[in-house]
């Protein structure tokens, strides 16, 4: 039956896709002609038949596509194989349309007399023309904020399972630091730098319109800590990159306005793939990656022969002898020799260090710890997806599998993912979308404890650290993993026998993660321009971390190391009964090991309701009005216990010494813990936009948010945000018609207020039960100790931002890009301030700090060359950001200021690096420094609080002030080549410590020691301090002021953090139609890719230290060089 066009227009929403790119003007039904039902008054022209096929992007026929005449709307729908036949006159323009594809127009005169095919491109190609904020989809041409579109096709790095790492160098103003290569650890991502002082500066992740809640709170600064919690810090670690269609990075207050008080740090909106109408298609993607192990040629570490020469010096200067070896916490080859001599297992030679024959077998060991602990590992990823649909329903189903056998002998990962999406046109006015996603992860990692900051010397420490990279870098190469009989060889660590292979086999983490979400999107069109919609989601995420510390592990053995009275007295892991202070320390773990369990459960509920009205007045005036509300409930539960006396070797019997529980209580440690968090959040929002002739755009957005995470008062818990923005499409003006080389030119500006909840805080008084030490048992009782004072007036952190920008396209799209300038003022930032002390604490959290920042962003895309089958496209991004603390009530200590992670100080960067001022070596080879008023000193007290820059020098920001990328893509025929280079500059890096707190023969030695001071006068030719004798060391330094420790924190141990990195290179080949036909495939592509290939430039002072990676131990591992082969086949 022939329907008039007016009827079809009333039904057009049936063919709208999930992304607003315009709608097909006719439903997809079997081939039939239709007309507009109106009588033409124009003279009839001679008509001819146009025949052809409509194909998809893979060359397959598209059934149900619309082929129509533009002026009249008369048209047909294509048949099962995409074929059509249509009568048209020579002056007609023919329009080809299909749901989810870009429209194509052709003059009929060019199509007469021949059969032809028209290939339509999918809507993914059109996403770049629409800003997807998560709440709404806005024509990019009319958008007034700062946003950047990134297609997954353009940035996908095969073999990398976490999509968040793929944004590095792709978006101006977005910094991506790969602080750890361990799976599950998020990269440190900053959008326009830091906005908070102590809170998280991580962006808000949004997937298909819903904010992704973090399972655990890990701030952007703590991502580099190496603690076990970082393994579940990535918001999208459970999302298969093959299921992602695109990213939209929302950067300024206008772009993020609808997210209100949660969007101060920017938003990354992820759009996942959906089903398409047409034939059922199956796609397979597989990648196979090889990761190369590190090697000693990359680092500045002595070999075993060089180490032995230093050991002789250490023996001669009293650092290592029979006495120190007997009480040493750690020892290597020389200490072991003295221990065996004391046990009379080997003789004493009086013409050498002790027993030269014993030492000689280790001098040539030159153990390659990298070869032993790392491996050339393989990772494989597989994804199978199915898409299908018709005009009433569309489906997408995907299954993914990742197997990573680990870059070390201590880690491995398996991950399974599921993504399903079903979209239904229930009626002419009602659409429903159902989305079910899930992931399961099983991971193994080296056992670790959390690091702690040592305020004495300004360093982080971690007990029982067995991180493979840290061990390889910091362990003497003269030590052997196996003895001459092929058995594991043990040395001493933590007063107990130690072998790294034994330890990794008996001390490890097991991580299980389950993440499941169900989402429903409901849309109802009251009229063509008045619509309501609802989004509902339930998500449950559960993680389980088991730390198994078995009976034979060094960590367990350390708690019962009492083989001699000397060790018993020195071992801090033994327990001295406070009621019997004169008795010998005793073991509270006489047998068995530890079983430590940590669990995190997240249940989140999300409801959002929207009403949108888009009226038009004539052709000149367009309005876009949006109002809505959202409610978010997140229930988090953290629980765990530390199990003592688990008998792994005896069938799992638990034998707990009661003194272990007592020791934990006396030390203020809970042997079990369970905490629940109830996060309640609501928001009301309104947005109004006006466009005049698509030239002038004005927009206003306001939002009112409330949260129970802050103070008690309404003023504290509720917070209004707002934004005003405007834009001018200059290229739409009449006076630009003659400027044919400018395709698009738009200027825009915005100003607004956004906010954040800041660091995790408590409105109520936070107390904990403790048992204080008192002389007699009868006087002891449990008391409540204040952990945090009440913060009834603690409120939101706030950010005022101004943004101005220019967007352009030139020379028919050959050149495009934009420039953005912004100024930001963060105020009411949360941090510690001094109190009177009356409440029981000297410091209290308060909204007392301010910070200013500004920046410039540049994006430039160009296609310099297109000749025949060859093309070259290039893209450059550059982002500059500088911040300054403008209000700070509590200055840090010197120890905090000199740490490698940096600290905040008034008038300087939020993460500024500070150093002791090195003044040279004295005539004994001892480092000296400039103290207050320029006086040369050997001692500076690191516990002093900094009020003036009298003793330290400001090096610069730890965070780069500029970063970006340069991507070049070349195509020739079916071959393509992509080269991605990333860079950053303007930051400083603290070099790894050169001098240990105390010398031993367990630790590796840097090659710089070969140039150390040896004789008076050497201070004129070297800056490497001497190894002084043990007595001198005790006389010249106290805790926190030792000059050798100050040397590690001095300005001579600082390097430039700038680098240029060849990030990845990809070569691809698309299979020819003839080959596809022979193989029975619809599509096919094969790619070879190298990732993290080389540092093209970095400071020579780094000596192999990666400028991105903090060697913090724990579970942190470097990002390795990786080579990947990938295939993609469609059926």
From TrEMBL:
Membrane topology qualifier: Multi-pass membrane protein
Subcellular location: Cell outer membrane
PROSITE patterns assigned: TONB_DEPENDENT_REC_3
SUPFAM superfamilies the UniProt entry points to: Carboxypeptidase regulatory domain-like, Porins
GO cellular component: cell outer membrane
Keyword Membrane: yes
Span of the signal peptide: 1-28
Subcellular location, principal: membrane
Pfam family name, one: CarbopepD_reg_2
Domain TonB-dependent receptor plug per the UniProt entry, residue ranges: 146-267
InterPro entries hit by this protein: Beta-barrel_TonB_sf, CarboxyPept-like_regulatory, Plug_dom, Plug_dom_sf, TonB-dep_OMP_SusC/RagA, TonB-dep_OMP_SusC/RagA_CS, TonB-dep_rcpt-like
Keywords, comma-separated and alphabetical: Cell outer membrane, Membrane, Plasmid, Signal, Transmembrane, Transmembrane beta strand, Transport
Family classification: Belongs to the TonB-dependent receptor family.
Protein name: SusC/RagA family TonB-linked outer membrane protein
Species the sequence originates in: Fulvitalea axinellae
